[in-house]
Amino acid sequence: MRILWTLLALLIGIAAALWIMVPSDVSTSPVTVSDTGVARQSVPSAPISAPHASPEAPPVPATGVAPTAPRATDPVRQVDARTIMLDDRFEVSGHGSENDPYRVQWNLLGSARESIITGGITGGITGGRADGTTADVPAWIRPLDGGWIEISGYVSTPVVTEETREVLFTMNRWDGCCIGIPPTPFDSIEVKLERPITFVGKHSIRFGVMRGQLHVEPFALGGALLGIYRLEHAIVTTQAQ
């Protein structure tokens, strides 16, 4: 009997020792037996983490359309050391000085009609200020005020004269009377020359490249806009009959 109890105690001690040695993290998943008779223990799968978003990808709104950059509101943008862009439409080269004037085109000067609205000679100018203009000069034209410009066009005089220092410089051919297209305030410049020039014949038209200091001053009389641009200290650098 003592030998039996001794063997039983020994077996119990061995079982206890084995139970203590079993690691605590051993999976307790159930064991299943396959149809082949081999015991298999089901192992839980590791959790799948969500994919990380790329740090370079911009946020996309709920509509699915990526946001676009807003348009610059500054009417003057520097392109390079000698070039500016006005209103993202008109490229102008030069520094605006006497030795390096702005090279401008008539479409830039003509764009003033977008904010200076006229009603014609009979209708006058609608609304606005005491001088008859309905709005200020556009913000993209104001930077030219006081600067030196160079522009090509036609030289004429409203009166018949052989020599004068005050001429009208226009985009279209006009002899001041009957030949050509009469100018508007948006495609003409009143010019005061440094040196007088002569005109030969009653209907004399000259093409030239005019250079001078520009003043942007809209003015009206009797409800009609008469002019916007005036050029001082001007010279005709090129002339052709």
Helix content: 10-25%
The tally of helices reads 3
Which architecture name of the domain at 105-240 does CATH use? Answer: Beta Barrel
N-to-C CA distance = 145 Å
Order of strands in the sheet with the most strands?
7-8-9-11-10
Largest sheet: 5 strands, mixed, barrel
The Cα radius of gyration reads 44 Å
Please, what is the average pLDDT?
A: 73
Q: Determine the strand fraction and express it as a percent band.
A: 25-35%
Could you give the order of the helices and strands?
Answer: HEEEEEEHHEEEEE
Characterization of this structure:
This protein has 241 residues and is mainly beta. The protein has a domain at 105-240: OB fold (Dihydrolipoamide Acetyltransferase, E2P) (Beta Barrel), CATH 2.40.50. Helices cover 12% and strands 34% of the residues. It is built from three helices and eleven strands. A five-stranded mixed beta barrel has the order 7-8-9-11-10. Strand 7 (148-156) and strand 8 (163-170) form a beta hairpin. It is elongated, with a radius of gyration of 44 Å. Residues 24-55, 60-71 and 119-134 have low confidence and may be disordered.
